[in-house]
Amino acid sequence: MVLVCLFVQEMVQGPCFNNQQSLAGTNFLASCNRIFGCIEYSQKYIPRPDDHSGEDRKNCLNKCSVKCALLNLLASLLEACPSQDIPGRCYDILDFDVIDRQIGRLCRVLGMAGEPPRYPPDGDDVADCDPESPEDAQLMNISTTLENELLLLCSYVLKLNAVTPSRPPPLPYLSELYNGEEVEKMDKLTPEQQLYAAELQFFLQRRLGYVEINWKGQLVEPCYFKLTPECSNLVARQLWCNVTLDRINNTVSPDSRAFPTVKAAELVEVLEDVVDDIELESRLGRNRWLKAVSVVAQYRMRLLEATFYLAVGTLIFQALADARWGPKNRFKHSEQNWATIVLSVSVMLQSTCTLLLYMSFVYTGTSCVCDMKKGLGFNHCG
Description:
Keywords: Membrane, Transmembrane, Transmembrane helix
Strand order of the largest sheet: 1-2
Transmembrane segments: 306-326, 338-363
Radius of gyration: 29 Å
Distance between the termini: 42 Å
Number of domains: 2
Strand content: under 5%
InterPro entries: Ryanodine_IP3_receptor
């Protein structure tokens, strides 16, 4: 069934309006209601101590694969629809109570409803699985697949709401959670939704991105897309956001704004650099030494200022206190002088700042970053 959904999705996406209209005119949407209503995750889970081969995980993974294939096919029906016919049929036929129940069950399985996750991420319940095997590795990392299903469910509901602005939201609480509404002020939540609303909001805001495709001032299509954990960690950093925005603003020239093709080409170059930086930082994070150096590099300007002020302060203090070791003042006598102690501490601090500054330039400088990227498998510096 998964392969059939993938085949039909290739025929529909693109988008191909005729195929979209033909598929939406069949009983496909009603069949989705029956499938989503039949293959639900159990609300109460009874662990099986003897299930060391992961049979329960396999059943869950099969359900997840079928539903993800259906959700991708449903999302392809909404690609750049020129009219409200297809979104309207999806809105009228799909049973959103079933979809809401699927979201609630998934939140329970993933541990977002105040309970521990059903499947431990360390894979203790599948001791017989081999991590080197791709199939067993997928079983052990089943939480990632379940998170993708949850993102597909929520993104489809949010996009259907965006392409049918004249109708009430199919699941209003999802839009409120994604837009940052305070959970305590949402008085229309059911008791079941209240259990996982806060965790679901945090999950969506970090793992679900949103962009709008505009052409000549008109909205062509709203797009929701999944963010990997690495990307979600990066975009949450204020420093990263500021640097990315500055690079985009500085790269796109004023002359290119009148020519969409030139503007798109310049933006592609910036995005390639951004993607390279994401991959580079992800790989650097696996090495503790390089990770520490990258943290030091963020404070490079402060280190430079500290080194300068320490050098100037040390020279002034040495001139005023005249705390220098001479032939008549041996080290055992000079170490009792408070001025000498202060001078020694200043010199050591200056040396430390200089060493850290040197390492930050050596390991994160422009030429060295290029060499590191090439050494890590990148073809260009970016």
